[in-house]
């Protein structure tokens, strides 16, 4: 049964431990490109750098390209209810929380694909 990690660091650690970290990067790159928000994380990116760069990308989308941000969330299939529950008063914190939701959903896709292939 899939149990989502409770924070970004644990999620990335779990992905590494299950040898699925590279698949997670591939999935993120794929979905961002589907949303026409080209992002190309190199396979050599460290988990801490991935976390930082994803956070920065989401922050910029929220601030400058809100319609594209919403499209991205739709394409990745991030839970609308979870996003609505967030406090949007601080964009930095909001971008961090949304980055975690994105990683969580992408990790879920990778995990299921690996478990049931």
Automatic annotation (TrEMBL):
Organism: Flavobacterium degerlachei
Name of the protein described by the UniProt record: Uncharacterized protein
């Amino acid at each position: 049964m899939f149990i989502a990690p409770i924070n970004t660091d644990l999620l990335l650690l779990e992905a590494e431990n299950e040898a699925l970290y590279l698949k997670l990067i591939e999935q993120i790159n794929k979905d961002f490109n589907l949303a026409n928000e080209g992002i190309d994380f190199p396979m050599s990116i460290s988990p801490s750098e991935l976390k930082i760069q994803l956070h920065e990308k989401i922050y910029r989308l929220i601030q400058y390209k809100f319609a594209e941000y919403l499209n991205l969330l739709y394409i990745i299939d991030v839970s609308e209810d979870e996003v609505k529950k967030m406090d949007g008063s601080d964009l930095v914190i909001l971008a961090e929380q949304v980055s975690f939701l994105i990683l969580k959903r992408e990790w879920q896709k990778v995990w299921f694909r690996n478990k049931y292939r």
